[in-house]
Amino acid sequence: LVYAENTEGKFKKSVFEAVSYARAIADQNNTSLTAISIGNVDAGILNELAKYGADKILNVANDQLKNFVNQAYASVIASAAKSEGSDVVVISNSFSGRGLAPRVAVKLEAGLADGTVALPEQNNGKFTVKKTAFSGKAFATIELTSANKIITLTPNSYQVTEKPTGATAQDFSVEPKESDFRAVLKEIAKAAGKISLPDAEIVVSGGRGLKGPENWHLVEDLATELGAATACSKPVSDAGWRPHEEHVGQTGIAVSPNLYIAIGISGAIQHLAGISSSKVIVVINKDAEAPFFKVADYGIVGDAFDVVPKLIEAVKAF
Ligand code: FAD
Predict the structure, then answer these.
(1) Is 285 annotated as ligand-binding?
(2) What is the pTM for the complete model shown?
(3) ipTM score of complex
């Protein structure tokens, strides 16, 4: 079973990654794949899940479940897993996925591997899976020994793979329990039109080297040209130069984009903890000895105020 989380009625790429990943696990076990969506999603959008290998698409359209409620959504996913006889449940390692997965695991008495980055290996009845550990500083291979297993997949770590089945969505009705609504999300305040940081494929991030918020147009302009999300180091958000939800690292968000561009960030271990699973890291820093260069794939030793405007012009001309 794969949970297809919708964002305002649409599926993000990370959902198609999770469906493709779950399809591959189903194939490893010669079994079928069911996808479940909760909330208001149009049939045409739901049916996209069939393109990536869902044999069955369950749609839970219930007014009480219109907005995300951790406990209630976990109950629905667990009851779908039971009725489908699914012993592996795949969830995207998104904000809500991280809240849901342990709750589903409790309900199904399942082992949980969170933040996986590769397909499980299944040999001689053993089910092992590679995941990030210690805030992304290391990888761990863990074995799930329980009959039921919950996996959350790190975004950008598995390729979207088309495998059309032609399945169409069908209703799945559940009667949520009152006790599932003890804590209800009332409102999420968000900046309109910005690319979501945890799911971004490209991230442009700024540190204290940018001197002050008045210089952030450099980060924003480069991000706009690249279709990237913006991020920052902790001291930058602590100083109020940028909002806290942009802070990446051990105490902030962990990101795993295809490209992470760090401008004027020293590369402290606590910062690297949140970005080290990025595929390509580009560092711009005027100090050639900055620790960030040790983990960079590409580095420019130079003043951000010279380098970044040139980079923006180069991307514009590309
Ligand atoms: P600095 O360390 O001040 O580095 C600025 C860099 O900019 C320098 O390398 C400098 O050479 C360069 N620079 C200066 N001027 C220019 C210029 N004109 N052009 C180009 N480069 C220039 N930090 C995080 O980011 N995330 C976390 O989650 C986090 N969690 C923490 C948790 C704990 C418990 C602790 C103790 C610390 C944590 N920190 C975290 C803080 C971390 O240790 C560093 O202090 C922080 O990452 C440094 O931020 P910075 O690189 O922006 O600033």
Answers:
(1) yes
(2) 0.77
(3) 0.99
